[in-house]
Amino acid sequence: MFLASAMVSLSSVTALGETSTARGVVFHDQNENGTRDSGEPGIPGVLVSNQLEVVRTGADGSWELPAREDCIFFVNKPSGWMTPVDDQMLPRFYHIHKPNGSPASEFAGVAPTGPLPDSIDFPLYRQPEPGRFEAVFFADPQARDQKELDYMAHDVIEELMGTGARFGVTLGDILFDDLSLYDNHNALVALIGVPWYNVIGNHDLNFDAPNDRLSDETFERVYGPAYYAYSYGPVNFVVLDNVNWRGAGNGYDGNIGEEQLTFLSNLLPHLPEDELLMLLMHIPLQTTLDRERLFRLIEDRPYTMSIAGHTHWQAHHFLGEESGWKGETPHHHVVNVTVSGSWWGGEPDETGVPHTMMRDGAPNGYTIITFDGQQATVDFKAARRPADYQIRVHAPESVNSTEASSATVWANVFGGSEKSVTRFRIGNQGEWIEMTRTVEPDPVFVSLKKAEEEIGVENLRGRKLGGVVNSEHLWKAPLPAGLAPGLHRIHIQSDDQYGRVFHANRAVRVVGAPE
User: Fold this and answer.
1) Which fold has domain 391-511?
2) 403 pLDDT band (50/70/90 cuts)?
3) Hey, which residues does 371 pair with through a beta bridge?
4) What is the distance, to the nearest Å, from the Cα of residue 127 to the centroid of all Cα atoms in its chain?
5) Region 137-163: what's the mean pLDDT?
6) Distance between CA atoms of 59 and 40, rounded to whole angstroms?
7) Which residue in 105, 399, 442, 483 is a FRET match for 452, CA 20 to 30 A apart?
8) How far is the CA of 117 from the CAs of 16, 54, 72, 79, 95, in angstroms?
9) Which of 83, 78, 74, 7 is nearest to 46 (CA)?
10) What residues form DSSP beta bridges with 121?
11) What percent of the chain has pLDDT over 90?
12) Mean pLDDT, rounded, for 177-182
């Protein structure tokens, strides 16, 4: 483990006006001390970028790239190698070049870095990387204050300590506007014990910045470049910044922008087409304005996938022509479950942590993706619930035997998609009845929102939940007619897109017809 200051080896400096080219070496840090010692060889063929151009290191590990007055040089971690991480498990793979530092802002940016060094040397050390591995994906932890960081600690961090995942990613909205909490947040996530990559979100910006270029200054100080790439095993990960800040008072939109598209067009020829390309971003692709320009760069590749956060609901989208995608097969885009659920809303439980159900009726939590060669299997994980908690069943507590068929059984299959098949039966031997996928609000979430209105916001024990949205993983069907009075088991079964089967149960009481 290395401190950020050990990330690069800086030799004697040159006056800014004397050079417009940055140079350095990517080397095998054999003793893992963060500096290049005598006899430590350069590593050939490693990708290095200045946020626009991408080059491969030469036979001796050397590289050179144009330098701009404000840019970040970074190494693309290659498979089988690792960059240093600091004491908060943040990968340190970059060198920031801001001679004059960041402009004044409410939250500190980068201090002046001074003249360009003669050599920017990136250390790497070997690590085994299997073809099959797991990674953890958070979206929108979004703590407003230390109290909500404590919620996060007890809700998701503690159960992940000792995970077998190889690394984690937060897909933006790391915090909820108060960027002074980055250090506390990072220290908390570091307890999980694996390297952690970060994507910028709309709540991670410097809102007093006049434009998008200057809105990332605090993020860059803490995490480095807002877009970059790295490889692990046979998978190539590309982090995108698709939050476009339009200036104070004008808000933001979803846009990738010219510089990143240039970076991508220079990077992609170096990434083998027979390997999975995984794009990581904050705003979902459907609301990213220039997504079609991105699609033109990747849609001829046979193995692509992407994941985003932002919405506080979960979905699997398979993008085709209606979204501007022209690839041979639809592009799988995951809108990730959020750690904060409904922004840490809802009634606190016995431990004091809000239930914070997401707006589509799914619980808050995170995703574990198992990568295996060119394939990726996505698992929804509800916070503080067993891994097999994948479905919530909703039905009346009791129904009249003559009116049972007018009662509805609902199944919210949290990680379900249009490719899921969901059915139910009554008892252990009843016939399976197909359920219909429907896109409408989850009835449990709707009832919670109605209860909030009845109680009154001023009387809630916690924050109010988010607004109701349609769920994209909801199935329903009527109870069968002719049920005898008594207690009955409703048995739900859902087959997912990967061929796995999940089960859930609920009891329903059937009463005799009124006299």
Assistant:
1) Immunoglobulin-like (2.60.40)
2) confident
3) 133, 376
4) 24
5) 98
6) 14
7) 399
8) 9, 19, 13, 28, 10
9) 78
10) 9
11) 91
12) 98
* Token pair 């979902």 in the structure block, residue: 284
Q: Which amino acid is at 153?
A: A
CATH of domain 4-68+92-125: 2.60.40
pLDDT of residue 8: 41
Alpha-carbon gap, residue 382 to 12, rounded angstroms:
52
Cβ partners under 8 Å of residue 241, min gap 6: 199, 200, 216, 226, 227, 256, 260, 281, 282
Digit-coded pLDDT (tens) for 59-107: 999 999 999 999 999 999 999 999 999 999 999 999 999 999 999 999 9
| The pLDDT of residue 20 | 86
Identical fold for domains 4-68+92-125 and 132-382, yes or no, is: no
Token code pair at residue 438:
């429907």
pLDDT at 313 over 70: yes
Nearest to 126 by CA among 58, 170, 161, 77: 77
Q: Report whether pLDDT(497) > 50.
A: yes
**Whole-number Å distance between alpha carbons of 54 and 109:** 26
CATH fit for domain 132-382, picks 3.60.21.10, 3.90.220.20, 3.30.10.20, 3.40.50.800: 3.60.21.10
pTM score over 0.85: yes
